[in-house]
């Protein structure tokens, strides 16, 4: 049986991390291990993780750097990269093991349903679902027909640790869309899939921006990335929200 290591990159996530970890403690079957990789939080994020008995890795700031550190330190066969504000179903470990039992699947992620205490963001969630398909079809059509789909961080990406390390993991120079870049590298091992199960992601960015601006920014960044804009330029439109 495969062992699943869950890697959580975190920066000033003390408010959200506790709820995420309470759900992870209820997984059935349980994860092999849960690693929190802290990027220099100033709000007690690491203390929250340690209160749950978890191993905390200290890392330089940068999600790609933090996830690489977690992937290298993990001891499971499957790596799952989970945002601190994303909630997973209690059978997600079994789902990941079953999905990657297919040798033709290299990497996969869930359908992300964006929601908050006030509402569920159905329109934005639908767009996020569709861009997994239309972005590679528009900008990487040859790879699309070989199985490429573009997954993003709130979709809870998972893959085999051996292949993650073989392809070099996340590009540490990517300050945004590092998960999409990983998909481009992982497709050489097999299909990238968006499986038909849901995870719940925080809508805090939409609350700050509003639905119209958020959708416009997501589309703008996606199209510029497809046309070759640098990650440093794109990051200007995607400031951290805490």
UniProtKB/TrEMBL annotation:
Pfam families: Glycos_transf_2. GO terms for cellular component: plasma membrane. It is found in: Cell membrane. The chain crosses the membrane at residues 217-234. The keyword Disulfide bond does not apply. The keyword Transmembrane applies. Residues 5-143 form the Glycosyltransferase 2-like domain. Keywords: Cell membrane, Glycosyltransferase, Membrane, Transferase, Transmembrane, Transmembrane helix. Pathway: Carotenoid biosynthesis; staphyloxanthin biosynthesis; staphyloxanthin from farnesyl diphosphate: step 4/5. InterPro entries: Glyco_trans_2-like, Nucleotide-diphossugar_trans, Trfase_2_rSAM/seldom_assoc. One of its GO terms (molecular function) is glycosyltransferase activity. Catalyzes the glycosylation of 4,4'-diaponeurosporenoate, i.e. the esterification of glucose at the C1'' position with the carboxyl group of 4,4'-diaponeurosporenic acid, to form glycosyl-4,4'-diaponeurosporenoate. This is a step in the biosynthesis of staphyloxanthin, an orange pigment present in most staphylococci strains. Belongs to the glycosyltransferase 2 family. CrtQ subfamily. This is 4,4'-diaponeurosporenoate glycosyltransferase.
